[in-house]
Amino acid sequence: MSYEKALTALADPTRRAVFERLRAGPQPVGELARHLPISRPAVSQHLKVLKDAGLVTDRAEGTRRIYHIDPHGLGALRRWLDQFWETALDAFVAEAERTADKP
């Protein structure tokens, strides 16, 4: 999945809240909805967007769907963010080297 889809999905505060709740581990929709001020159907819709963006995946467990963060789906987003870190770190090193030569 592309980082654009991930960023778009996480731009919504409610989806971010759903995604952040999954950090604690796999959960069914009902458990997620219990801790959020939205209905189960609304949580399901947010999970669908997160799943389409490659950020979560699910598995069947009886009649329930258990959702969890997809670490592979975070890869594209992480690679995109890492390029900023690398650029910032290179700039920091260059500045440190430039100012270290001054008395």
Structure description:
The structure is a single chain. This protein is an alpha+beta fold. It has a single domain, classed as Arc Repressor Mutant, subunit A, CATH 1.10.10.10.
CATH class assignment: Mainly Alpha
Q: Can you name the CATH architecture? A: Orthogonal Bundle
How many runs of DSSP E, i.e. beta strands? 3
**Helix/strand order, N-terminal first:** HHEHHEEH
Please work out how many helical segments DSSP would assign.
Answer: 5
In angstroms, what separates the terminal alpha carbons? 50 Å
The helix content, as a percent range, equals 55-70%
- What is the average of the pLDDT values? 91
Give, in spatial order, the strands making up the sheet with the most strands: 1-3-2
CATH superfamily: Winged helix-like DNA-binding domain superfamily/Winged helix DNA-binding domain
Largest sheet: 3 strands, antiparallel
Domain unit count: 1
Rg, rounded, reads 19 Å
From the structure provided, what is the oligomeric state, counting identical versus distinct chains?
single chain
User: Strand percentage, roughly?
Assistant: 5-15%
InterPro entries: ArsR-like_HTH, HTH_ArsR_DNA-bd_dom, HTH_MetalResp_TranReg, WH-like_DNA-bd_sf, WH_DNA-bd_sf
Keywords: DNA-binding, Transcription, Transcription regulation
GO molecular function, one term: DNA binding
Protein name: Transcriptional regulator
